[in-house]
Predict the structure of Transaldolase.
Amino acid sequence: MKDVFKRLSAEGVSVWLDDISRDRLDSGSLAHLVETGRVTGVTSNPTIFEQALTSGSAYREQLAGLAGRGVRAEEAVRELTTHDIRRACDELAGVHRRTSGRDGLVSIEVDPRKARDAAATVAEARALWRAVDRPNLLIKIPATVESLPAVAACLAEGIGVNVTLIFSTDRYREVTGVFLDGMERARAAGLDVSRIASVASFFVSRLDTAVDGRLAAVSSPEARAMSGRSAVANARLAYQVYEESLASARWRALAAAGARPQRLLWASTGVKNPDYRDTLYVEELVAPDTVNTMPEATLNAVGDHAEICGDRVRRHYAVSRRVLDYLPWFGISYDAVVSSLETAALDAFVGSWEALLETVERELDAHRLVSAAR
């Protein structure tokens, strides 16, 4: 059977797994994915941790210890999650060394409730960086306007950053700007910029979901023909911005000092519409020096039947621009859609975080009751 993952790697695409749990770590599942070359990095989010907490007993012993110490939910969440992320970093340490820091990276998020407060975000990023204490860690920071200065500040201190929740090419252009700013400040401070990693997580499938719903309301043959085209077009135009950034004098100076690019990471690549090919957002977004982070179902589908046909991005900028330019013909405002997606995504991120806190608090209370009954 052809090895799709080797082909993706040869095309410059790194495959990361959008999932981490203690069960996966304990069972050796992550180690197997790494050893077989399917996965070279890991991303996570509060929903994944909350599901892992409620679906198994892997956290029981640590939760009991935390309850016994009188730890409250927020501190407990950080102890639970940093424990798992530290182990994941160790699982991927070999990849990190072998790729000279390009891959083998693992993300952990700041509290999304602080996404409108740059100073609070930086403070938490520093605390997480110290707590995990691994060179292959990335701190996941939402790309809200208010948090962009936090991205630059963290990079300036040598903290690796995954800038997340990017939906528009305009916001991504701002992200490339703060990346250059932070790296220039790190260089000016005498830091080794070759050791500072960063990715920019550009969300894909949610744009199709939002636009397709609006197109369906138009209910015309032309609108139906536009379905399922916006997300890939948007992502391809983001890659054009990436190339423009690499062509800048600012980047060339940083590259001469040993800096590595802030790669584009395609996020939300699980296909939501069952009418679409389940490997759509992998096959159509193959481009050099990108990352595609996948849920396990997408990872398995890619391994089973994905067709990798080389670079599917750089030759399609003009067509992609036309696709987005057609949206107003159907009464759809691109700016309004991406703005609503950012707001909804941040609200969902906060909701997932609060659900995780509630689950942990409930588990801690249960352990305290058991202890008191003895």
